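User: Here's a structure from my thesis project, written as structure tokens. My advisor, Dr. K., wants to see whether a designed sequence matches the one we expressed. Can you design one independently, without my sequence as a hint?
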């Protein structure tokens, strides 16, 4: 396509961009029909895209071409029509990749700006082919850029234009793949580390309603991703489960930290609004975990693929420790309220850990959990989980798949085969236990989270 540059130069910016899109569509159709595997757009074509669509100057001496706001809107409409009229998904995906795959150069900022506007328009006018292509882009792109796209959509539909939330909510039915990736991106963006990184209540309510209506929604990317392929480095997680667990666990303390002055009953306005939403979300997340055994067994992955990563849990417990410190020093909160919220947070953490382990979403040893929870204050339910039964998997010695972005760090990757267990001799009378030394607690009014080796745990999973 390099020979059409001279014919594009005399045209105005909109006409040149439109002509290039036309030729790009023909070029990619021919590329797909040629049967070359994998089909790949050449560098000269990408340079034309940067010069005539993204308007990155070819050299320093060439002035940058600029579109007016009206011309840019017209270009977005042309692109929407181009993707809508192309019936072959392979061609659409290659064309979207040629336009918006990041190249690590100065044109990437223009790419992101145009992509954000195009996807926002596709949400507004229901252009499903563009949303499907954007879902693939979110799956393959560095998470830093994914959260930037998510931020634009949240700003456009939850902040800037009142009453536009229902438009964004429609992506659940229009493109479940894009909806799943959007949830993963926003749970990565809003990590509750500050008031600015706390999800808007409209966004939270929308996500809760999506997952309540269709719990399998958060697994769509996982269910539709080839198991032989590995996730690109620093891409989004294959499911939003880790981010959703972080939201549910941190919410009671994070919203109390960022709250306005308390109401007469001791709760803040923000807590009153979002508390039930996070409770409902927590229940929905546990229900998603309980769907996993059948899904993982069908794929032969039970005990081989962790959808909840230990690295993210270690970060979560570290964040909880800091939040507890802040809650201790909160001037607007009584000691009883602080302790109740802290116990609610730890209860949710314990429930998520236990249900995730029991259903194959989290693969780790109890010792690993005790290590990352050692700085947390005592909680009865968490203590039961940490001293619970060892989880065994039928294929525990099968190496984890490269599909997991953190497979190399999976606890099951390095275990040698276990020898057969000898028969147990009769147990002698137990000597009194010497409790293990607890990690020094960073929260003076709470006892540290010890591992009580003598605590009975009568429950055993039946499966």
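Assistant: Designed independently from the structure alone:
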């Amino acid at each position: 396509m390099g020979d059409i540059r001279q014919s594009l130069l005399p045209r105005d910016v909109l006409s040149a961009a439109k002509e290039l899109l036309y030729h790009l569509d023909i070029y990619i159709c021919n590329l797909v029909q040629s049967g070359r595997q994998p089909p790949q757009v050449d560098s000269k074509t990408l340079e034309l895209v940067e010069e005539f669509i993204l308007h990155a100057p070819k050299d320093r001496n060439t002035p940058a071409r600029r579109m007016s706001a009206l011309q840019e809107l017209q270009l977005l409409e042309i692109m929407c029509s181009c993707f809508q009229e192309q019936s072959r998904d392979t061609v659409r995906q290659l064309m979207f990749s040629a336009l918006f795959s990041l190249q690590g150069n100065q044109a990437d900022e223009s790419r992101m700006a145009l992509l954000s506007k195009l996807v926002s328009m596709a949400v507004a006018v229901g252009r499903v082919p563009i949303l499907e292509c954007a879902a693939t882009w979110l799956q393959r792109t560095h998470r830093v850029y994914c959260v930037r796209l998510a931020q634009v959509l949240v700003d456009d539909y939850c902040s800037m234009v009142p009453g536009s939330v229902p438009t964004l909510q429609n992506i659940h039915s229009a493109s479940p793949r894009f909806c799943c990736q959007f949830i993963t991106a926003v749970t990565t963006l809003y990590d509750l580390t500050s008031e600015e990184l706390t999800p808007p209540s409209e966004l939270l309510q929308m996500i809760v309603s999506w997952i309540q209506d269709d719990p399998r929604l958060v697994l769509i990317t996982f269910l539709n991703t080839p198991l032989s392929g590995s996730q690109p480095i620093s891409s989004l997680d294959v499911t939003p489960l880790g981010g959703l667990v972080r939201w549910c666990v941190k919410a009671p303390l994070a919203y109390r930290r960022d709250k306005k002055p308390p109401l007469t009953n001791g709760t803040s306005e923000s807590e009153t609004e979002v508390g039930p939403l996070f409770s409902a979300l927590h229940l929905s997340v546990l229900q998603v975990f309980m769907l996993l055994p059948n899904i993982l067994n069908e794929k032969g992955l039970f005990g081989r693929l962790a959808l909840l990563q230990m690295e993210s849990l270690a970060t979560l417990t570290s964040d909880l420790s800091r939040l507890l410190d802040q809650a201790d020093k909160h001037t607007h909160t009584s000691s009883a309220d602080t302790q109740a919220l802290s116990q609610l947070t730890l209860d949710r953490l314990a429930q998520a850990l236990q249900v995730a382990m029991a259903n194959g979403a989290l693969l780790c040893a109890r010792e690993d959990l005790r290590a990352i929870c050692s700085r947390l204050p005592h909680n009865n339910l968490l203590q039961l989980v940490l001293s619970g039964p060892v989880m065994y998997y039928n294929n525990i010695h099968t190496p984890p798949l490269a599909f997991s972005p953190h497979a190399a760090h999976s606890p099951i990757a390095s275990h040698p085969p276990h020898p057969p267990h000898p028969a147990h001799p009769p147990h002698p009378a137990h000597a009194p236990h010497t409790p293990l030394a607890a990690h020094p607690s960073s929260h003076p009014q709470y006892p540290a989270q010890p591992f009580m080796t003598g605590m009975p745990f009568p429950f055993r999973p039946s499966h």
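When you compare it with your expressed construct, this may help: The chain has 19 helices and no strands.
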